[in-house]
Amino acid sequence: MNDVGRIARLKGARHDVTWHPTEDDLVLHFYEESSREEHARVGSHLETCAPCRASWLDLCDTLRLVDESTAPEPSEGFERVLWARLQPALPKPRAPWWSVAGLLPIAAAAAAAVVIGIVVGPRAWPWHRPAPTAPAAAAKSETAARERVLRAALGEHLETTQTLLVELMNAPDADVSGGSEDLTFVRTTAGELLSSGRLYRVTARQNGDVQFTRILDDLEPVLVDVAHAPEKMDRHDLQSLRTRIDDASLLFKVRAMSNEIRDLEKKSAISE
Amino acid sequence: MQLDDAAAVAQARAGDEDAFRVLVERHGRGIYRLAYRMTGKPEDAEDVVQETFVRAFKQLARFEERSNFSTWLYRIGFNCAIDYMRARPHRESPETMDVLEGRSQPTGQTPSMDDLVYAGQISARVQAALVGLTEQERAAFLMRHYHGCSIDEIGEELGLKTNAAKHAVFRAVKKMRVALRPFVDARVESVAE
């Protein structure tokens, strides 16, 4: 029965002694889903009609049993396990490359920590700070773990960049490979490095790291060209790229930077 | 100081995973209970909980700050559970309604009140009855009964017209009454004695 019919029936019920609320009416009454008028009428009817009251009490008993039931509790440590499963599954925010705001804190912290370290020198690197005082000791292991992740992230970025540059410089001569060079893999890698490199560069600039910013500035146009290059790069374009990489000493600079990071990791490992 | 939900949401929106973790730890068990009632299996419930929080994280930007986070999260949880059950291969419910109805017939062996004092038994029966409902009925009933959602809200969440949502609740209650009949009768008898 639709609502209009139900209301009409209930209105008529005032003078109709044969009227009784249906089971559905009682359900709505229980959940207080009926109108105030309906609710009052069903309520007053239940006071005077024993069979309906019995039905009502039966409904209440049933739903009370449902209330009494409990779902099993998850095991102890549920939250910890849940988070361990959940965290890797959380999507990482895709912020515009020019915005650091969208970076996950860990990524931002990674870039910032590395950049600050490069600008100001080893003493400013978080893993070269003096030993923490007793109150700060509790946070030490967490900080250390995070810093290891950060170092690894930047180190990997630089290593990959270095590999890509080496690939480009040592790619078979176009004449030998049939007039053009297949750079599919290199193009894909360049696109990925471009995205992450932009984030590192923004942070580096914000932290005033001239050296690191300059390297990333020099790298970006090369990576843009590679990322957007045709699948088969002709000899002339490939040679042009090589010249730019060579002229800017990009491979050398990236290698130096990469080595610096690696040394810092080693020192850190020893001190830990 | 412990973050309240609103503050944790605000920080999580800015990408703070630790703040989101606060929300996960605060609401994880509640979502688990919901998911268990919906799926009837602990391992399925765990999957639903995880998916609920992943979706919540993705949709945080759409969460209206004036809303109640818990309510918003539970709705995501319901939808995840429904999607989960629809996506998994059809399988026999642990307790079909036929079985439950069969059990509810007078057998001359009405469980004594002694048997019923065990809350676990009631819980198991209620859970079996819930699993015997259709997904739509179960969701509608749980939303109405445990989470106080109005019929209109249920319709909105389940993509049903108000009348359809209402009838989903009606059908669910009818089936629950059938399934729980022996327990209700036993309780009435014990009170009468």
Summarize, please.
The complex is a heterodimer of chains A (272) and B (193). Chain A has 12 helices and 2 strands. Chain A is mainly α and 272 residues long.
pLDDT averaged residue by residue of chain A: 72
Span between N and C termini of chain B?
A: 54 Å
Strand content of chain B: under 5%
What's the assembly state of these chains? heterodimer
CATH class of the largest domain in chain B: Mainly Alpha
Quantity of strands of chain B, as a count: 0
Report the largest inter-chain contact: A-B, 40 and 47 residues
Number of domains of chain A: 2
Percent helix among the residues of chain A?
55-70%
Which sheet architecture does the biggest sheet of chain A show? 2 strands, antiparallel
Gross geometry of chain A: elongated
Radius of gyration of chain B: 19 Å
Produce the secondary structure layout.
The complex is a heterodimer of chains A (272) and B (193).
Chain A: H1 3-13, H2 23-30, H3 36-48, H4 50-68, H5 78-89, H6 105-120, H7 134-137, H8 140-170, E1 180-182, H9 184-206, H10 210-227, E2 232-234, H11 235-247, H12 250-271
Antiparallel strand pairs in A: 1-2
Helix pairs in contact in A: 2-3, 2-4, 3-4, 6-8, 6-9, 8-9, 8-12, 9-10, 10-12
Chain B: H1 5-13, H2 17-39, H3 42-59, H4 69-87, H5 97-104, H6 113-116, H7 119-131, H8 135-145, H9 151-158, H10 162-192
